[in-house]
Each structure stands twice: as structure tokens, then as C-alpha cells.
From TrEMBL:
Residues 19-87 form the RNA polymerase sigma-70 region domain. It comes from the Bacteria. It comes from Salininema proteolyticum. This is RNA polymerase sigma factor. The lineage of its organism: Bacteria, Bacillati, Actinomycetota, Actinomycetes, Glycomycetales. Residues 172-191 are annotated as: Disordered. Belongs to the sigma-70 factor family. ECF subfamily. Residues 120-172 form the RNA polymerase sigma factor 70 region 4 type domain. Keywords: DNA-binding, Sigma factor, Transcription, Transcription regulation.
């Protein structure tokens, strides 16, 4: 692989494969010299090539060889991983030996989770709406805008906003309605 083809690895799968095959052992060796855990070394090697794909367009042949460039990326990836692990260890030392939540706190949290179950159901139902229906519903029901104002925000006609709002409310009612007793059969009837 020549220096001129390195920028192609971000867009050309064949160029990436050639680049990977040519440099994977060197990158693995580079990482293995700095990391003792084989799983972490494999993850970091993959991260190096992902970073290379993302920054391939920045490669300049006049600034060094492709191997030097990938080593620079590997150095940054390994250093970032080391800093992240150091911060995690430092945070772990700061909280070690401390109870993160007391039993009373856990009971309050469980009560709060139970209380928010309806809200979660509402958000799940909203996730099933189209983006345009959800936008109108949020502006009217959550943000308190009038339909005409919501239409202006969305740059649509008020009639279109009313139609979208009607559809959204209909879908929400359908999604949130309890199952009809006629549709629920007793176990003995199902046999």
C-alpha cells in the first residue's frame, strides 16, 4: 500500500482490507508491548483501526509513512485508554468502602420507579408515533402551545397540525388503553 492510498481506507473497503492486512501485526505488537491483558489488547487494536478509518482523510504523506501514522494513532488510543482506566480506578478508590445507597434510599428509589411506570408507558407509546405526530403532540401536550402556535413552530398549516395531533392522540389512547375484557379469555376457555 502506498502513501497515496491511505486516505482511501475511510471510504474503500478494499483499501481498508489491504491496509489492515499490511499493518495489523505491527499494531498488535505495538499494543502488546504496552498492555498485558490480551482481551484489552485486542479491543485496543480494533480501536486503532476504527480511529484510522475515521481520520484517514487527514493523512498527509509528507508528514510520515503509513506505519508511522498508524503508530501515532495507536499511541493516542493506548494513552486515552490508560487515562480512562486511571480515572475509573481513582473514582473507585474514592468511593470504595462507602455504601452507595442505604436500604431506606433503595426503598425510596423503588417507590419512585413504581410511581414513574405510567410515565414510562407514555414515553414508550410516544416512541411509536411518527416524528411529525410526536412533534405536534409534544408541543401541544407537554410544552402547552396552542395548535396554531405549534403549527407555526413546525412550519406547517394549522389544519395539518390538527390532523397530526388527532392521529397522535388516537394512537396514544389505543396504545395506553387497558385490554378489553372480551379479548382476554380465561384459561379454561382457551382449552
Amino acid at each position: 500500500m502506498t502513501s497515496e492510498t491511505v486516505p482511501l481506507i475511510g471510504t474503500d473497503p478494499d483499501a481498508l482490507e489491504d491496509f489492515y492486512r499490511e499493518h495489523v501485526e505491527a499494531v498488535q505488537d505495538f499494543v502488546a508491548r504496552r498492555v498485558a491483558d490480551p482481551h484489552r489488547a485486542a479491543d485496543l487494536t480494533a480501536d486503532v483501526f476504527l480511529a484510522a478509518i475515521d481520520s484517514a482523510h487527514k493523512y498527509r504523506p509528507g508528514r510520515g509513512t503509513p506505519l508511522g501514522w498508524i503508530y501515532g494513532i495507536a499511541r493516542n488510543v493506548v494513552a486515552n485508554d490508560g487515562r480512562r482506566r486511571w480515572r475509573a480506578a481513582k473514582a473507585g478508590r474514592r468511593i470504595s468502602g462507602r455504601a452507595l445507597a442505604e436500604p431506606d434510599d433503595l426503598a425510596l428509589l423503588e417507590d419512585r420507579i413504581d410511581a414513574e411506570a405510567r410515565s414510562r408507558r407514555l414515553y414508550e407509546a410516544m416512541d411509536r408515533l411518527s416524528a411529525s405526530e410526536r412533534a405536534v403532540l409534544e408541543l401541544v401536550a407537554l410544552d402547552g402551545l396552542a395548535v396554531a402556535d405549534a403549527a407555526a413552530v413546525l412550519r406547517i398549516k394549522p389544519a395539518a397540525a390538527r390532523v397530526r395531533l388527532h392521529r397522535a392522540r388516537t394512537k396514544m389512547r389505543s396504545d395506553l388503553a387497558p385490554p378489553s375484557p372480551a379479548l382476554v379469555t380465561a384459561p379454561s376457555e382457551a382449552l
